[in-house]
Amino acid sequence: MVNNNPNTEGLLKYAREKGQQKRLLVEDVVKKMIKQQKTININSVSIEAGVSKRFLYETKDLFERIDTLRKQQKGLPAKQVRRNTSDESKDVIIASLRNRIKKLEEELIQTKKVRDNLLLNSYDQI
């Protein structure tokens, strides 16, 4: 029994209301981010508002507003994160990477030997 006239008005109404709620939420988040002087872009707004990036891209007016704010912020100096690493810690990292490379090279040599033995055995069987 297939219903030829499905009643989908309720679902459509719910979807429209949900979209409107998301839109209001995003607008509030953008206002809050402006007050807090946070970086505004599609990714940061989607994370803050808990909405998908797709929603923001598909909602043209929200996308244009976020894009405009992002372009306005380009002129502002970005916060620079400076990492302080001492020469000793750099040396430790380099040494551990060299050891890892050495182990991987040894493993590669062993793997090639096993492969060659398998090829010889399969060739002998033919």
Task: Explain how this protein is built.
- Keywords: Coiled coil.
- This is Transposase.
- Residues 94-121 form a coiled coil.
- Pfam families: DUF6262.
- It comes from Brevibacillus porteri.
- The chain has 126 residues and is mainly alpha-helical.
- It has 2 domains: 12-73; 84-126.
- It is 75% helix and 0% strand.
- It has 5 helices and no strands.
- Helix 1 packs across helix 2.
Cα end-to-end separation:
64 Å
Radius of gyration: 29 Å
Order of helices and strands: HHHHH
Low-confidence stretches: none
Strand count: 0
What structural category do the secondary elements indicate?
A: mainly alpha
Question: Notable features of this structure?
Answer:
75% helix; 126 residues; mainly alpha; single chain
How do you describe this structure in short?
By secondary structure, the chain is an all-alpha fold.
List the helices and strands and how they pair.
Layout: H1 9-35, H2 42-49, H3 53-58, H4 60-73, H5 87-125
Helix pairs in contact: 1-2
